[in-house]
Write a structure and sequence with these properties.
The protein is α/β, with parallel strands linked by helices. It has 16 helices and twelve strands. The chain has a six-stranded parallel sheet, sandwiched between helices.
Length: 435
């Protein structure tokens, strides 16, 4: 079950359930299109190199389509290299090797792919150019543990960090200090070649050091930072991981003279495209921010309060309006989970409970990569009668929230958004339409 896109138009009259649903799906699709590498990558490329080798490396959910876009933009440049993407995210390429691997927990292909990238950049000269294509998901997809650690060690710490609700910046701080490729080590291995990174941001504040754990940019975090995070969340790492984090002699690079960084798509770019589209649909948009964080259900409660204020008082803007936001919330697993869910559908459950059937408010939330949590579900739609329809179907939103079964809840109502892999990733996008 899932929502399908419709073609809404500018509306001056009353909003109906059908037109609100169609507008929200239109806005979500607009956000995804704004970050499509085939549309945006070419404009950010450096001048074509006139000497030396051009080696392409990359990782992330968009890595393969970025590689294909680069091949299309530079058909007359002799390219070689390897990128690593998530399973089922590969696209045909002519000159650049594509390896598929696991996300969010790395597997053997993540290890093989990361080692292949390091192999590709070793032995280069100052006449050579490395084009690094980075996007969300690269942290898990490029898993090359430092000597003394195993892939199993990294898999275990990844699972622990996910389960305890650590945000992406915190997770990457730990992972960079267990890796032979992250935290600037890939660019250091490529020296003295010039390294130009083209990145799609899926992280708060578009921090280059956080995107994919920053394989090609200097790393400001330290072993002490990683140890503090492990202690804060009460994680007991394997003896090998504990020993690695206990030392300070093999710090990540703090400067990289051979590297430059270019952002080609960001959450704010996607939100701004949504705002333009919203105006065309007859809605007044308000972008609340691109880096909202916190427990997903609690963020939903806060957003419900803002939506109610717009509906009742016309503050902070008058309806018909749409509240837009981005950023990555977290879901901390508690109790005994009985189902499946993700950040976006959990947010919508929290929003639904707080709105309690308030009229004239619809919403959507979804991950622009097409995957909310571990399932092939982008997100879902919320309507004023969501709770009423759920009750009629024998569902209790609070029970679904407590058992982390948000996918099951919205799936039973036919309100899931299923896009399949979108081949881009500018994080989560939320839109609340107030009529």
């Amino acid at each position: 079950m899932g929502e399908t896109a419709a073609q809404p138009h500018h509306l001056s009259g009353p909003w109906t359930d059908a037109t609100a649903r169609a507008a929200l799906r239109d806005l979500f699709d607009t956000a995804v299109a704004a970050a499509d590498p085939r549309r945006v990558l070419a404009a950010h490329l450096p001048p074509k190199p006139t000497r030396g080798r051009v080696v392409v490396v990359g990782g992330g959910k968009s890595a393969a389509v970025m590689a294909a876009a680069l091949e299309d933009a530079w058909p007359d440049v002799e390219l070689e290299g390897t990128v690593v993407t998530r399973y089922d995210h590969a696209v045909p390429t002519r000159r650049i090797e594509v390896i598929e691997a696991s996300h969010p927990v790395p597997d053997e292909n993540s290890h093989r792919g990361a080692l292949r990238l390091l192999e590709r950049v070793r032995g280069l000269t100052e006449d050579d150019t490395v084009i690094a294509l980075m996007s969300g998901g690269a942290s898990a997809l490029l898993a090359a543990p430092v000597e003394g650690l195993t892939l199993a060690d990294k898999q275990a710490i990844n699972r622990d960090l996910l389960a305890c609700g650590a945000n992406i910046s915190e997770m990457n701080t730990v992972r960079k200090h267990l890796s032979a490729i992250k935290g600037g080590r890939l660019a250091a291995a490529a020296a003295p070649a010039r390294v130009v990174t083209l990145a799609i941001s899926d992280v708060p504040n578009d921090d280059p050091a956080v995107i994919g754990s920053g394989p090609t940019v200097p790393d400001p975090t330290t072993f002490a930072d990683a140890r503090a995070l492990i202690a804060r969340y009460g994680i007991t790492p394997s003896p090998a991981v504990a020993a690695r984090l206990a030392q300070d002699t093999d710090e990540t690079p703090k400067t990289l003279a051979n590297a430059e960084f270019r952002m080609i798509a960001t959450p704010m770019m996607a939100l701004e495209a949504m705002a333009v589209r919203a105006r065309a649909l007859g809605l007044t948009p308000l972008i609340l921010g691109d880096a909202l964080e916190g427990e997903a259900a609690q963020v939903g409660t806060v957003m419900a309060g803002i939506g109610r204020s717009v509906r009742a008082h016309g503050h902070p803007l008058r309806p018909p309006a749409v509240l837009l936001s981005g950023g990555e919330t977290t879901v901390t697993l508690t109790g005994k989970p009985g189902g499946k869910g993700g950040r976006n559908t959990t947010f919508l459950l929290g929003l639904a409970i707080a709105l309690n059937g308030a009229p004239g408010i619809w919403a959507t939330a979804g991950d622009t990569d097409g995957i909310d949590g571990m399932d092939e579900i982008a997100g879902a739609l919320l309507t004023p009668d969501t709770l009423a329809r759920a009750k009629a179907a024998g569902l209790d939103a609070r029970v679904s929230l407590a058992t982390h079964d948000s996918h099951g809840f919205f799936g039973a109502l036919g309100d899931l958004i299923v896009t399949g892999p979108t081949l881009t990733n500018v994080n989560d996008i939320r839109a609340i339409l107030i009529a």
